[in-house]
Amino acid sequence: MKKIPAKSDQEISASIRQLSLILKITRAIICTLDYEKVLQIISNGMSELLGIESAAIYLLEGNDQLYLGATTPPLDPGMPDSLRRAPLSDHPHIHQSVITKQPQLIADTANEQLSPAEKNVIEMRYLRSLLFFPFVQEDAVLGVLIVGTCNKSRGFSPSEIDLGQTVANQLSIAIQNTRLHADLKNHKENLELLVQEKTKDLDAAIEELRAANEELFSKNESILQQNEELETAMQHLKDTQTQLVQAEKMASLGILTAGVAHEINNPLNFIMGAYVGLEDYFRMHGNNDEKTIPILLKALKTGVDNASRIIQGLNQFSRESKTYREDCDIHAILDNCLLMMNNQLKGRVKIRKEYHPAPLIIKGNVGKMHQVVLNILGNASQAIESKGEISVQTFAYDNQVIIDIKDTGCGIAKENLSKVTDPFFTTKPPGKGTGLGLSITYSIVKEHKGKLEFESVPGQGTSVKVILPNK
Predict the structure, then answer these.
(1) Which CATH number is 322-469 given?
(2) Which string of b and e fits 71-94 if b means at least 16 CB within 10 Å?
(3) Ramachandran bin of 51, using left for φ above 0, alpha for ψ from -120 to 50, beta for the remaining angles
């Protein structure tokens, strides 16, 4: 077996410095969603990381335009926006990096054939040695990160080039995060405007209905039936407004959930990278504590795995799909929902699972089935005031899949059992529930050609069965 040469103290010190700077850049990016700040952090961080004087970030607009987003030293804040733009064709070295999606090197600008626009920039900033790093998102080039020396040339090692490209890749992730945040903000603003417009329209409709009612009441009793129908229509409009607001909230929740999952994935990737690096390091160099270090590494890996499972559950819940022909793994959906509910249940509610011995997979909509299970588990959790138990059982019987969720909570009065799926019916105090949870659950189960069954004894608990076809 070939022996790996040990690194010198100088090499180890340089590696530690580089890792510290990368972590510093990463922490700074995570702490802000301001687009311009992210660009400036990357530009300054790359300059410090490679120990050179100058850096710049050009963003690609369309297929043929460049926009100067940030530089090190920073741009004059009063610089006109028009001076930051330039045709991509005027900068052939940037163009080459965009086309190849690979780093480009100019060892010495004094010996390189340059375009007039490139000469102008190089003379203005006294640039000599330049590196061009494209940053790519889903196979599309978003722009190019450029670093360079001033007044004197220098060489760049392959490890420095790899390190620079790694930081450039982080820039693409950071840009995507800031854009996602901006999209979410715009969606929220549009939602508020939509609700305002619908409320305004509803108020106008109500006023029209009231005017019609006054006119009808001024006539004889023969049109009383018409008046009652108008009152019913007015109530229907109010209910429709409430359902619209609820639907828009669920859409926003889906976007927010996806954004949060995406944001959490970034630090998880760094933690997992550090774990792999530590594991490789101890494997190659050994350690002085062979009892504690493996335990710590295992704990780190377990934490990352648990967080990853939570993110997978969030992604399943927030996925948008209108088809009902997806493969729905009932046991996986139940486990995802229990994982997402863990914070509400731990230390208070004991979970008992009794799953069918074989996997249960039906055709349906994965995201909506998550919503069904979460609504039922949420009601079961709220029904248990202090401590109790929730049991989750699954069965397969006569071409049907049955999910039975029982709780030891307060139960439901017999006279209310037939009303629990009615829109806006709730037994909770004012402000504690909308009465839409089980109504939405009932609608989703119906869309899956299934049915809901309820059994409850006040003071002892409730059983909710979800019965779905398995054909």
Answers:
(1) 3.30.565.10
(2) bbeebeeeeeeeeeebebeebebb
(3) left
Quote the pLDDT of residue 252.
47
Largest separation between any pair of C-alpha atoms in the chain: 104
* DSSP characters over 37-92: HHHHHHHHHHHHHHT-SEEEEEEEETTTEEEEEEEESPPPTT--GGGGEEEGGG-H
Q: Give me the pLDDT at residue 435, please.
A: 44
Among 136, 138, 129, 139, which residue's Cα sits nearest to residue 168? 136
The CATH 3.30.565.10 domain(s) of the chain lie at: 322-469
C-alpha triplet 295, 300, 302: angle, nearest 5°: 90
Q: Please, where in the chain does CATH 3.30.450.40 lie?
A: 9-176
393 vs 91, 96, 129, 334, 402, CA distance in Å? 65, 60, 67, 10, 8
- Are the CB atoms for 468 and 450 separated by under 8 Å? yes
**pLDDT tens figures, 165-189:** 887 777 777 777 777 766 777 777 7
Q: Give helix then strand counts, H and E, for the chain.
A: 11, 13
Torsion on CA atoms 248, 254, 255, 257, rounded to nearest 10: 140
- Count CA atoms within 13 Å of residue 175 on its CB side: 24
Q: What is the pTM of this model?
A: 0.41
Q: What is the mean pLDDT of each run of 10 residues along the chain (471 residues)?
A: 58 65 65 72 79 87 87 81 86 92 91 91 89 86 89 86 80 72 75 82 83 72 72 70 53 52 65 75 74 73 66 58 83 87 85 94 88 88 90 92 94 84 60 58 88 91 92 71
Fold designation for 9-176 = Beta-Lactamase (3.30.450)
With contact defined as beta carbons under 8 Å apart, do 434 and 424 qualify?
Answer: yes
Phi, then psi, of 151 in degrees rounded to 5: 70, -20
Position 263, amino acid: E
Tokens of 362: 């039906």
pLDDT at 154: 87
CA–CA dist 371, 368 (Å, integer) = 5
Q: Using CA of residue 175, residue 181, residue 184, residue 189, what is the dihedral sign? A: negative
Q: What is the CA angle 62-66-72, rounded to 5?
A: 140
Count the neighbouring beta carbons within 10 Å of the beta carbon of residue 142: 20
